[in-house]
Design brief:
365 residues; alpha+beta; five-stranded mixed sheet; four-stranded antiparallel sheet; 11 strands
Length: 365
């Protein structure tokens, strides 16, 4: 190991280096904090995926005798590109669920009028599970959602389970898709003023735009926004507040780290003065300061990633998954939080210390 290398300095000054490495590790903890914030979106991923394949159209109250709606549904049924599943106009509430951050949110429902329609929709969605017990007034949910209420196949879901449920339904099957939707079968031949529309050729915005063009001036409601747009707009405030908080914490943490760095480098003024006297340029001083701080930062990052990964794994396996929740191991917000924090902490230290050390003069000592 070369005498002037970053590794040599760290090896010969273990106690000082360890203190800084631990401080740099703290920036990685913000990665996990970001994962907690972004975990909210995890619960909506499958719901959004399914909503991009299923478009719910419904009658408007201004539609006299619902003639426009009836005409529109007949046109859709005669369209080879479209598959129509008529459903009841009655409202059906889903089960509230608790996210990783600890607050409750309400799940949606996808209602079908017959078991045959649900089975066909599942085939189009690529959802596989045992559907042999599906009949009228049954419900299918994910294993994750069932775990939140300690439910199993054959159990009854009603207001005794959750106050938001209207009516009584038997669990016919559990899926492994980690969605937080309820798929329900409720027979109602007299109130068919909504329809779940699917297509083998289209989904998402393409499907919605196709339906709008087909609707024309008919008084029929078709969603203007995707569920993804709605979810992200509602929860974007969490991200904004979190990023501002990260910047504030990082500035405070940067001051602390730079105070420690200053204390360490002041004691090395003689050392750098000698380096300058034997011909080391300011650029060389910068490289040396950068190499030392960056190496300690890199060690802190690796150690931090290892620690946070083990933490996330243990929390998931021992606590969250058994309760039907999940803490993501990675998120874009977590990565942004870590990068902001690490840059704000490391960069000022490199710049300030390399500048002060490059200005040392052996004649001053």
């Amino acid at each position: 190991m070369k005498a002037l290398s970053a590794g040599y300095y760290i090896k010969e000054n273990k106690s000082r280096a360890v203190a800084l490495i631990i401080m740099f590790m703290l920036t990685v903890l913000l990665f996990t904090a970001g994962n907690y914030i972004d975990s909210v979106y995890y619960y909506w991923e499958k719901n959004i995926e399914y909503s991009e394949q299923i478009c719910t159209v419904s009658a408007l109250s201004t539609d006299d005798d619902f003639r426009d709606y009836g005409q529109f549904i007949e046109e859709l049924k005669n369209d080879d590109k479209i598959i129509v599943f008529e459903r009841t106009a009655r409202g059906f509430s889903g089960l509230d669920w608790t996210c990783t951050m600890g607050f409750e949110m309400g799940s949606g429902t996808v209602v079908f009028n017959t078991p045959e329609e649900l089975k066909e929709a599942f085939s189009l969605l690529g959802l596989e599970c045992d559907l042999s017990k599906v009949e009228d007034r049954t419900v299918i949910m994910s294993t994750a959602l069932a775990r939140q209420y300690d439910l199993k196949v054959g159990d009854t879901v009603d207001q005794s389970v959750n106050e938001s449920i209207k009516g009584s339904y038997r669990i016919a099957a559990l899926t492994d898709d980690n969605s937080y939707l309820l798929f329900m079968v409720v027979r109602d031949d007299e109130n068919l003023l909504r329809a779940n529309v699917m297509s083998k050729e289209m989904n998402g915005d393409t499907l919605r735009e196709y339906l709008r063009e087909k609707r024309g001036d008919l008084k029929v409601m078709i969603p203007e926004e995707s569920d993804e747009e709605v979810v992200y707009s509602q929860f974007s405030i969490f991200r904004i507040i979190f990023v501002f908080g990260i910047i504030l914490l990082s500035v405070i943490h940067s001051i602390t780290v730079n105070t420690v760095l200053t204390g360490q480098f002041i004691k090395r003024s003689y050392e750098f003065a000698i380096y300058r006297a034997i011909g080391m340029t300011k650029r060389d001083v910068f490289k040396k300061c950068f190499a030392e701080i960056f190496t300690m930062d890199a060690i802190g990052i690796v150690a931090g990633i290892l620690a946070t990964t083990i933490f996330s794994f243990l929390m998931n396996e021992l606590y969250y998954i058994p309760k039907g929740r999940y803490l993501p191991y990675y998120s874009s917000l977590g990565l942004v939080a870590f990068l902001i924090s690490n840059i704000l902490v490391v960069l000022p230290g490199v710049l300030s210390k390399s500048r002060s050390m490059s200005g040392t003069d052996i004649t001053a000592y």
